[in-house]
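Protocol step 4 of 6: structure prediction from sequence.
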Amino acid sequence: MSWYYWVGFAIGIYMTWGGATKSSAKPYFFLHARARMLWKQQAHTFLMISGIAVSLVMLFLALTR
């Protein structure tokens, strides 16, 4: 069951990378399109910070279980 946490960790890293580089890759584009509705110009920053949070939580869960 621990592999779920590692997949979540990878998704968090991807969100962080996409927000930091303002990526236009398709998977990140769809995440950004949804976040842009609520966060407007701060959508990249929101996705970067939430990606860090997701990564940290998933890493913690993967290492403790």
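Step 5 (inspection) to follow. The helical segments are 2-21, 26-39, 43-64.
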